[in-house]
Amino acid sequence: MFGISFGGGQQRPSNFLHTKHDQNVLDEIRNTEVVKAIARRVDFLLACYFPNLHSLYTNVLHDLCKHDGNLKPNWEGCCFAAASLNFENVVTLPHRDYLNLLFGQCAVYSAGSFDYKKGGHLILWDLKLILEFPPGCIIFLPSAMICHSNTAIQDSETRHSLTFFSASGLFRWRHNNFMSDKDFVAGASGDERATWDEHRRNLWQTGLEILRSM
Prior knowledge:
- It is a single chain.
- By secondary structure, the protein is an alpha+beta fold.
- The protein has a single domain, classed as Double-stranded beta-helix (4-Layer Sandwich), CATH 3.60.130.
- The chain is about 40% helix and about 20% strand.
- It contains seven helices and nine strands, in the order ββαααβββββββαααα.
- The strands form two sheets. Strands 2-1-3-9-4-7 form a six-stranded antiparallel β-sheet, covered by helices on one side. Strands 6-5-8 form a three-stranded antiparallel β-sheet, with no helix packed on it.
- Helix 2 (about 35-50) packs across helix 3.
- The longest helix is centred in the first third of the chain and has 17 residues, at about 35-50.
- The two termini are about 30 Å apart.
- About 25% of the residues are buried.
- The mean pLDDT is about 95.
């Protein structure tokens, strides 16, 4: 994984840390014209289908980087804060990405050489759906909400994936005026805490209003 994240014990948002060798490899991949084009396409499609969500992702990432000059986004023109690369025969077990924004979307780009009729399907367990996922295609899904996985491919084939996501902790950090929930609550006045609690209670409704822009 590479890019900006917040959660899992971090004290503040930061870029994922790697060894110098691994970082050089990731930077080389990240800066290829093909990968940059995929990132721009993902951003464009999110803006097309989820314009309000795209605005939220874009504004939060912009504000975070402006507030903390140590934060470095993966790509110019891509609103997702982080990404994950998987090579060769990528298979995931059923899971939810609990650290992502509940009403948000992650984007998955499929690549490789495989028969998408026979393998590499995306399974959405809660919806009881199995979707063909051909190489070169992009799928958006609410990965924190829906249990998902993918099927294996044949031994002679290869499948790679590039997944774009933004951790929910980044949105909380921005909403708290650049501090953690713990620090905000510790320093909040009674009125501020009441407003904060109401916002959290109504967050499901906020998410629905954002998604209604589809």
